């Protein structure tokens, strides 16, 4: 079974809750190697997203919800995180297009497009001590899970687990992009806040899928009469 609008909106709501829960942690991480506003900015952005989410029409598609996140983050979040994370959601929305249901291939395409959007904006690559260090392992793990014939929920779980390891892997790195790059070797031993927030976002995607289940998502779509109904 594929995942529809119920999963996407559940992912968005869970992301907002998780970012709020980890706001101080993200602020602390960013204060150590940046300007300290990452957690505050993301929390403000996703709070704004939640306020707008209920305004989605009853026939909204997954891509519509993803585009709502993108435009809201880009317009409300300052610093680098707004354009970076917003572009990730915008490219994800473009990747899924008008699809009512997202199968494994569509989910991998969504994640890949999101990662590529971050690369497009930030010009970073793996090893630069940025959110790409979480996103690229996530995309690779999702693609491998798809190739193994795993379910949509399993694909998202693989992506989340890889992102968490990727975020951890930034701790011994010297930053080559962003404000942290000015610190040189003093950034060693500190986790990149963008990679950590990316891991939280991808964990929320997996947890939202696992919480509802693909079958439960389709059933909820059908009960609501939404376009995500199978």
UniProtKB/TrEMBL annotation:
SMART domains: Dak2. Transmembrane segments: none annotated. Gene3D superfamilies: 1.25.40.340. Residues 6-207 form the DhaL domain. InterPro entries: DhaK_L_YcgS (IPR012737), DhaL_dom (IPR004007), DhaL_dom_sf (IPR036117), Dihydroxyacetone_Kinase (IPR050861). GO terms for biological process: glycerol catabolic process. GO terms for cellular component: cytosol. It comes from the Bacteria. Keywords: Kinase, Transferase. PROSITE patterns: DHAL. One of its GO terms (molecular function) is glycerone kinase activity. NCBIfam families: dha_L_ycgS (TIGR02365). This is Dihydroxyacetone kinase subunit L. It comes from Subtercola boreus.
